[in-house]
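Recap from last week: sequence in, structure out.
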Amino acid sequence: GLTLYDNQNNSGSITVTNTGIIENVELAINGLKHSNPQDLVFILSPPSGSGILLSANSKISNYQNNFSFMFSNKASSGNYLYNTANGGLCNIVNKTTNYRFNNNTLTYSFDHLFNNSITGVWTFYANDTDITSSGSLDSWKLILTYSNTDEGSSE
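Predicted structure tokens:
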């Protein structure tokens, strides 16, 4: 889980020791609890390539406490966080012109990660941009589909 403290950068990391070439990336957020989810910014920082701005201060029209969703390029066209249902897949909205992180330019797609190595530290940031409310998420899950470079098999 991850506690979302007021007006702070909150993060968790996963170290991937497997070797392989990325074919697909998805990120699931399970059990989001926050009184103002539109205050949140979600970023994935991969070991190689630019960070990905998953969501920045997005209203979620179907939001209810204990909300779960997954950022995925397999989401239906037109399905975004602001209109996804609990447990649904959503695409990433391009808000990169409005938001920077640590003075770095961010991307809005997983595509630039394809054909790169999965090995390294992957960090998920859930930043709360307001001082009036905090929250938590039960868990986050990074789903990496990759080709094993040693054996040529798919994992």
